Amino acid sequence: MITVKSYLGLFSIFLLLNNAAFAAIYDSVIQDVELVSQSEDMLSVDEQVMVVADLSNGQDRNQNFAYIVQIRDENDSVISLSWLTGSLTLGQKFSPALSWTPIATGSYTIEIFVWESLYSPDALSAPLLLTVEVV
Question: How many CB atoms lie under 10 A from the CB of residue 23?
Answer without folding.
Answer: 11
